[in-house]
Design a protein that fits this description.
Rossmann fold, D-amino Acid Aminotransferase, Chain A, domain 1, Dna Ligase, domain 1, 3 domains, four-stranded antiparallel β-sheet, 13 strands, D-alanine--D-alanine ligase, ligase, D-Ala_lig_Van_CS, metal-binding
Amino acid sequence: MSDAAQLNSVLSTSQPRRRVLLLAGGQSEEHEVSLSSARSVLAALPADRYDVTAVVVSKEGRWLPSSETERVLGVGSADTGGDSMLTRVAEAAGYDVVFPLLHGPMGEDGTVQGLLTLAGLPFVGSGVLGSSVGMDKIMTKRVLEAVGIPQVAWRQAARAEWRRDPQGVRDRAAELGFPQFVKPANMGSSVGVSKVHDAGELDAALDLAFRHDRRVILEAMAASKPREIEVGVLGNDDPIASPVGELRFATEFYDYDTKYQAGRAEMLIPAPLPAEVSERVRELAIEAFRALDCAGLSRVDFFYDEQTGEVLLNEINTMPGFTTTSMYPSLLEAHGLSYPELVTRLIELALEER
């Protein structure tokens, strides 16, 4: 046996396995997406280094016992059942680190991150500030605006305004011109999002968005058909950016079905872009990551208008989709990190002192 092999053997037997609590599911519309991500992470974590317990959070916000969690991960959805959140968090004190693989509201928006912080449990991903600001599209726009990161023109509206003065909201939308996008401020996976081609489609789009959130954001189109490019960021205070990837699809925009139905979209990594554009996008991704005080991981999405050369930041996702075929792991694989290496690195980052 070589010296290196002997050393690895000693390390693997002398170091106790880290106890990891993996949270999945949640109360948002992205419940099933989270469970898919969790199955991939569970399969990738090295059993000789980590003792992993998975807990599914039902759509009612109850935390399922491990025995029920195993069944639900196979089925793909948990509508009911489970214990109170505080009971399960109290039981989590013996874990070394938590991987809150939860997407959308009540998971990715700082709520669970605040609970884990109060419990004194290290966790993968951004803290309360980065998670909450990153989830809220309006607050993200305001922060990025303050640091000078280019974005599409936008407006905001509240449900109470829409009920009280609908014409005022219509007038505000008209300032952006058409087509435009109408989105709930706090949803992911394009849930509740509409592309509005003219004023006649606006009311229905606003009604849909307000069913998902009390605040909505209205966004001008970046170009007639902008290219959608994405970057993965990994790290804490000294993050790195992955190669740039591009999404191509036939639908009018990257909606829920296009994101999650096989064969509806194509990922190109690296994106066929001029070198200076790729470098600019990577720089902006890290700048945005730092501006929001993110940690661990984020996927940063941009629009690129190849006619003008303009790059505009669209969104930042602090807990992106995490199946083996999702964009974020694919971007980091292009950077040289395999899926198991990426998951391991995220746990290491969670345990770093910041």
